[in-house]
Amino acid sequence: MAGIVQSLILSPRSLQPPSIQQRHPNFRSICNPYSLKRTRCVPSPIKIKACQQPDQGDSKVSGLANVWSQPLFSFVENNFLPMALIGGVVVGLANPSLGCLADKCYLSKVSTFGIFFISGLTLRNGEIGAALEAWLVGVFGLCSILFITPYFSRIILQIQLQPQEFVTGLALFCCMPTTLSSGVALTQLAGGNSALALAMTVISNLLGILIIPFSISRFIGAGVGVSVPTKQLLRSLVLTLLVPLILGKVFRESSKGLENFVDQNRKLFSKMSAICLSLVPWIQVSRSRSLLLMVKPEVFLVAVGMGVFLHIILFSFNALAIQGLATVSGGNWSVFAKKENADAFVLVTSQKTLPVLAAVVEQLGGAFGESGLLVLPCVAAHLNQIIMDSFLVNFWLRKDTASENGEGSLSNRTIIARHKEAF
Questions:
Q1: Residue 156 lies in a domain
Q2: Where are the transmembrane segments (predicted)?
């Protein structure tokens, strides 16, 4: 008895009564309505998992969509002009009825007016003034664009190909001034003298309105036995190209707010110009779809190859010309040997413009053949020159980056070494 009392004193029992689970081990508590901790009984693990699973799935789907959409949008943004031109050709071949209706509504003239009106809106005064330092390079560039490269049309006309309009169209392409936007854009990307590129672009297109009729009459009209209405063509080009360009420039200078808006949204206006340009091949191809379907695919591929060959010839000629001028006029210290000026010269003088060609073909009224057949190989040539020069500019940039990492600044590099690497 004394031992029992002693054990009870040394190990006292808990004052709290045993819980229900301790008294009944097989009993499972659901929820005590009188407990103060009722929140522990409310949440259910199954419900939480069921709510979380759709969120995780949605995030995975949205992440996968971003992975696919961002490269697509970036590709469209970087290649908007070639995609617009190709889209115009494809739509014209697929459904020519809309293009024929647009032709009856004179939409081609409206689109040409819009292209040059936008060019006037985006033309800056300071960019032209900055090119005065390299005026010698600009003068020789204008001579190459307007007087020298049209001679290559004689070489193109010696090629025998059916339909003959493919050959004549590329010969007309040789007589055109430089591109309105792609030459300047590629010059900026390459780090060249963009002001010089813009000056050559604007002046060559303005002077081209006066010179193109005489170039066509001399180099192509005699070769195909057609007399070109020079005065009528000149008047039409002035009304179609020069007037909207001047109007766009006047609108820009008349309002400071409009000028700031245009400068802040240059990409938007560039896309608008590309859309206007894409209407030209769309209408021309729609109008001549029946004839285009009669052309064999291998013949069209030959015409595309001719456009590629033409651009290679123009680029090689201008690259060799700038090298020779740099050597004759003082070597590395010459204004022709300066990398920025040489890049602008070669890129701008080696390209030909499609909008002016479309306007010329429109005004010729079928004097040299079917309009669609004349324009189609030039659309391919326009795309080819942009794509080829884009690859070349990327090649230059990679070479420049490697040289900067290995040899330091490129300020003393000459154009001779630059184009030897390119070819």
A1: yes
A2: 80-98, 135-157, 169-190, 196-220, 232-248, 268-287, 299-322
- pLDDT by residue (tens digit) across 32-53? 444 444 444 444 454 444 444 5
Cα–Cα nearest to 85, from 244, 250, 278: 278
Q: Give helix 266-287 / helix 80-94 axis angle, nearest 10°.
A: 30
Q: What is the C-alpha to C-alpha distance for residues 325 and 327, in angstroms, rounded to an integer?
A: 5
In this predicted structure, what is the pLDDT of residue 42? Answer: 47
> What does the alpha-carbon distance between residue 374 and residue 176 come to, in Å, rounded to a whole number?
14
CA 275 to chain centre: 12
Residue 320: predicted pLDDT: 94
250 in a domain, yes or no? yes
Query: Among 420, 418, 422, 423, which Cα is nearest to 403's?
Result: 418
Rounded CA-CA distance 142/181 in Å is: 16
- Kindly state the tokens that stand for 52: 């979380």
What are the φ/ψ torsions at residue 255 (nearest 5 degrees)? -140, 125
Kindly state the tokens that stand for 68: 């696919």
297 preceded by a cis bond (ω within 30 of 0): no
What pTM value is reported for the model? 0.65
Residue 138 CB coordination number (10 Å)? 24
Average pLDDT over residues 3-11: 45
Q: Are 180 and 354 in contact (CB under 8 A)?
A: no
Q: How many CA atoms lie within 13 A of 64 on its CB side?
A: 6
Has residue 312 been placed in a domain?
yes
Q: What is the CATH number of the domain that holds 344?
A: 1.20.1530.20
Query: What is the spatial distance between Cα 350 and Cα 211, in angstroms, rounded to a whole number?
Result: 18
Instruction: Look up the domain containing 103 and give its range.
Output: 79-403
The most distant pair of C-alpha atoms in the chain lies apart, rounded to whole Å, by 142
Rg (CA), the chain: 35
Q: What is the pLDDT of residue 350?
A: 94
Contact partners, residue 298, CB within 8 Å, separation at least 6: none
Report pLDDT digits (tens) over 265-283.
888 887 888 788 788 778 8
CA 400-402-403 angle, 5° bins: 65
Count of other CB atoms within 10 angstroms of residue 52: 10
DSSP 125-177: HHHHHGGGGGHHHHHHHHHIIIIIGGGHHHHHHT---SSHHHHHHHHHHHTS-
Residue 310 forms part of a structural domain: yes
Q: What is the DSSP string of 300-367?
A: HHHHHHHHHHHHHHHHHHHHHHHHHHHHHTTGGGSTTT-HHHHHHHHHHHT---HHHHHHHHHHHTTT
